[in-house]
Amino acid sequence: MSNSGYYSWLMDVIDGPRQYSRVLKHLRDIEYTWVNPMDENRAADGLELRYYYEDETGFKCNLRTPCSVLEMLIALARRMEDDFMYDFELGYDRTDVWFWEIFSNLGLDKYDNSSYFEEEIDEIVYGFMEKEPGHNLFLVKDPPENWADLEVWWQLNRYVSEKFGVFS
Predict the structure, then answer these.
(1) Over the chain, what HEC string results?
(2) Mean pLDDT value of segment 5-30
(3) pTM of structure
């Protein structure tokens, strides 16, 4: 991914702290893949961010690459905000809050620029994409036996319902 204006816009969406710039750039460079066919929808959401960028900035996003892990995670956080968590009383978007919560759930928050280990980050990222146990976007107290088989959308629903009492 090489569109620097678009990447800067993504960083603005999540209020990207500089201490994670290496991890975030790495996530930008990994193609999001899935094993559950319904998780293709998360890739579509990630690609849709490019249209939001064009609409909000007036600049063209010339990327013709598949959805990156970074795009997928930001789009998922945006969906979490838009579909479940928007608070009209607060009156502002908290996509960044949800992104960093997912980032932390994955355990990526321990890999700042001073403790950056690409192999370990890859293990986490490919682990969640391949639905390996212990590599979850969402942490719930009592996951069903088929948790890894559930598409990301239903995992998100369960997480939000358990953590915040919001039902979809």
Answers:
(1) CCCHHHHHHHHHHHCCCHHHHHHHHHHHHCECCCCCHHHHHHHHHHHHHHHHHHHHHCCCCCCCCCCEHHHHHHHHHHHHHHHHHCCCCCCCCCHHHHHHHHHHHHCHHHCCHHHCCHHHHHHHHHHHHCCCCCCCCCCCCCCCCCHHHCCHHHHHHHHHHHHHCCCC
(2) 93
(3) 0.91
